[in-house]
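Cross-posted from the bioinformatics board.
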Amino acid sequence: MTSLSRRLTAEALGTGLLVATVVGSGIMAERLTGDTAVALLGNTLPTGAILFVLITLLAPLSGAHFNPAVTLVAAMQGAMSARTAGLYAVVQVAGGVAGTVLAHLMFETAPVVAGVQARTGGAQWLSEGVATFGLVATILLGSRVRPPAVPALVAAYIMAAYWFTASTSFANPAVTIARSLTDTFSGIRPEDVPAFVVAQCAGAVIALGLVRWLLPNEKPA
Amino acid sequence: MTSLSRRLTAEALGTGLLVATVVGSGIMAERLTGDTAVALLGNTLPTGAILFVLITLLAPLSGAHFNPAVTLVAAMQGAMSARTAGLYAVVQVAGGVAGTVLAHLMFETAPVVAGVQARTGGAQWLSEGVATFGLVATILLGSRVRPPAVPALVAAYIMAAYWFTASTSFANPAVTIARSLTDTFSGIRPEDVPAFVVAQCAGAVIALGLVRWLLPNEKPA
Amino acid sequence: MTSLSRRLTAEALGTGLLVATVVGSGIMAERLTGDTAVALLGNTLPTGAILFVLITLLAPLSGAHFNPAVTLVAAMQGAMSARTAGLYAVVQVAGGVAGTVLAHLMFETAPVVAGVQARTGGAQWLSEGVATFGLVATILLGSRVRPPAVPALVAAYIMAAYWFTASTSFANPAVTIARSLTDTFSGIRPEDVPAFVVAQCAGAVIALGLVRWLLPNEKPA
Amino acid sequence: MTSLSRRLTAEALGTGLLVATVVGSGIMAERLTGDTAVALLGNTLPTGAILFVLITLLAPLSGAHFNPAVTLVAAMQGAMSARTAGLYAVVQVAGGVAGTVLAHLMFETAPVVAGVQARTGGAQWLSEGVATFGLVATILLGSRVRPPAVPALVAAYIMAAYWFTASTSFANPAVTIARSLTDTFSGIRPEDVPAFVVAQCAGAVIALGLVRWLLPNEKPA
């Protein structure tokens, strides 16, 4: 069993590098092109690639959640205690914020700036609910039917969800908070964060219910 | 054996998320760029990615057809009864239509709008015949020579076919019907649907014949 | 042992679909964008994807050469007779030409048109020699150190070579001949074909020599 | 055990083809488009693809370092002698320079031209430190938790790092030196090389320390 300090380090490191990739590639993309679809491609590929890497490398240490909505579902399944889940969420948020700061330092902007991109309203919340439903269903089904493929499945799912949801699929409360601290391509206004988090958790819980019905005889992974 | 209700749920869910991705990423792409090739890239990558995910996750439940032409071939091989095949086709179409509605709700357009994109004539029908021939040949050969790779093979095949056929490769009667209910990037006029479906079924049946000749001593998977 | 007629069918079918993808995606790309790098991306991804599919599916039948330079190396290794190699080359060229015709019919152009794109001179020939050297080295080394990865390795190699060689990496005499019959994005002037074929065969033979020195104790696969 | 001459040949060949791909695809991209983000996509995909190919093929021969910072870490772990590590670094640099020359010959420019792109300052050095930290952590963790995935992991990591670091992630002293000899898309001024190399080695050593703490009971691979 990996020690709790190593597990929390892995969660912080993974969430931090994930956010640094999302924010950093967004800055790189918007600096290099005026075509927003090209910029989104330049945001999508690095995000998918780093998810594949981080989940493959860190899942043996911490489970590679990097996402409080995923940790919530794990706790609901009894796979971890409420206390451990809470600690996971804390270091995920802290790691994510550090990731935003790191991206800003690499691209020579102020370390933290409140996001200015409005992302609110029913269509956006529906998008976040769908996005997180799909992400959690992918993780739960994938970890039962083909565990070694989970890193590639999550990466592929998020690359799709960047494009098929209207919100570009944040699908992660820690990442959403971290992205509220940048005014660049991937940012979101701080006041829009709470509704996103609610929608994400709702989508996650619905996914858990669906998977339990689809695979009734299976044990949680 | 998975119960029929779970199998049908898996087919509806999979076809729905596939169509939501095709239609949703098309809307995202056409809103973000004026370069149609960039838009098609922004449609191609999410479609390939979600196919890899959905087939990997749902094949153990329902076979992950998501496509009446594939179900037709399965029934012709004796792998499922005509009644089950008919039910599959019904839920595939229903799921696909729901996918279009979901994409429209996420992107704040009317739930259902008749397609306006003309896609007709011999070259388009040839394209659909070739596209579906290739898709069914990929599934039939892949499920015999390397079954675990089928999700990646189908995803890769469709990403290629989006570009090498003049119709961008619908290759699926349920998806074609669902795409006749959107007037966005991925739409098709309702009056153009029947000929597409005929061409798709013809391509599928020809693929079955070819594979039977190429692998005569093999049992269907 | 697969019968010779089935092996030749597999070679013709594979080369044909490969060329249809190269030529068809080139036409699609040049019709949709004025940005040539975007067009090359729209040519690169489908080519890589279809190579992964075709080699995975057809290698168990024919070896999935689809390329007279690869067949030449196989014959030099004693893996097939000169007569069989000659038949392979004939059906590869015939299949490739049929692929060009199929792409033209899908995109409603004349079935066969002489290429107009000049591709000649030392830098182009060097590019083709390097491209084919790398392709054959990839196949020979890959089939020894990790055989199941060969389809993905060839696909990845060609996607790289489309960009790092000045000729966009034809690397295949049958494909070169077939591409001399289109005046679209992927075409080449017929008078430039012979020097390309010479450079390709030279690169292939050099790769065979290098691999024999690098892996002296290994048997050909 | 592969002979030292074969190991050094593999390192020189691999580094050479890697640099030829980085430099060549950069030239191809900047010639074909005025959109710098499209050009970076046209540089990213070939680099990732060739890394997957070269590491898969040559790792059984030499370990497929292609990078003095990786060789340094291997020597610090006791996996190779200081003398062998020094020879590795020499042939990596020589192979890299040959790769630049090869790219220039294929694209008909002067064989060697001093780079003109300024890449200096704290944000660039931080970027290189982060980029190499991530690369070495990927290799060290990957070779312990899932060795067969290392080629794909390195390829995916570098594709992400091209976009999320402000320097586009050189992350390799030999490649940095080789890229100082081109004045094209991927170039760097010779006077900016030393600080890049220092930052890269610092990132590599920090990664080694982190991985030793995260996986204390594991032996080096």
